[in-house]
Amino acid sequence: PFDVLIVGGGPAGAAAAVYAARKGIRTGVASERFGGQVLDTMGIENFISIKETEGPKFAHALEEHVRDYDVDIMNLQRAKALVPGDGLIEVQLESGASLKSKSVIISTGARWRNINVPGEHEFKNKGVAYCPHCDGPLFKGKRVAVIGGGNSGVEAAIDLAGIVGHVTLIEFDTQLRADAVLQRKLKSLKNVDVFTNAQTTEITGDQKVNGLIYKDRATGESKKVELEGVFIQIGLVPNTDWLKGTVELSKHGEIIVDARGQTSVPGVFAAGDATTVPFKQIIIAAGDGAKAALGAFDHLIRTSAP
Ligand code: FAD
């Protein structure tokens, strides 16, 4: 069995693997896609000490770093169930195999909910974005839309309004769903238009995004907004379906962790975008992975025989 088994090979899982392996304990990483969301990213400009890199290059560097250590890397493996036990915790894989470990770190990340309209997929990284902290500065002085009027959409619109030239916020419902304080702040901004009862039907472009078409749901009329960028903010979904009923999750499906990454199940830790830790970013996930590995190590020295 492993001492530490990490499920998920994004920035959180990779950092956890390096930290665990450096303790000289038996470490494994099982993941569907080593690199995680970073593989879908183009420019990364906010990982401190690396001024600028590209997603696939960063993902490759993560794997190279982990391979420097004695870590059992199991790629293309999807976990389907976690079975806590007295001494050993079992992770069952879709392949039918099962892995056992004295401690487990879950770092299965999250995914942005897609709006599924024509243009979204074609213009990903060409004007279609999901993360204002990551891509906001790329649109300095330009016109953007934010789709989604919940807390994340309204926060994104407020954040972007300070960087870009103009923001159009588009909400499907007849009213915004964000907290009142955020809505008040949004209304005070001069360079923001808000359209409610508006259904985005297409993101248009040539090589890059040049506009967005929405249907006014009251009149049925289609309208076009000219712009250079579209931020889709209709939800970040944690990859935690497989944990329902075993590990305590928040109402958003995030794994509830304490300051050391400990979950509700003894010996099971979690890190990164899959957890309740706020602000979903690479550097935060990586730091969180390191913390969970140290948490797991601390757990091991207290509970298992040498
Ligand atoms: P993830 O990166 O999501 O990794 C999850 C891992 O778990 C993957 O290996 C996945 O295959 C695996 N997995 C999932 N389910 C299972 C399962 N059941 N069994 C086994 N394995 C599983 N952040 C920044 O800081 N700067 C940026 O510029 C930036 N740009 C971004 C651009 C885009 C397009 C996207 C999508 C995200 C961006 N982010 C950026 C956010 C950043 O990528 C995430 O915060 C970070 O990757 C989270 O790391 P993680 O390790 O928690 O999870």
Automatic annotation (TrEMBL):
Parts of the chain that traverse the membrane: none
Disulphide bond pairs: 131-134
Sites where the protein binds NAD(+): 143-157
Gene Ontology molecular function, alphabetical: flavin adenine dinucleotide binding; NAD binding; NADH-dependent peroxiredoxin activity; oxidoreductase activity, acting on a sulfur group of donors, NAD(P) as acceptor
Record-level GO BP terms: response to reactive oxygen species
Residue span, FAD/NAD(P)-binding domain: 2-287
Protein's recorded name: Alkyl hydroperoxide reductase subunit F
Organism of this sequence: Variovorax guangxiensis
Location of this fragment in the whole protein: 212 to 517 of 518
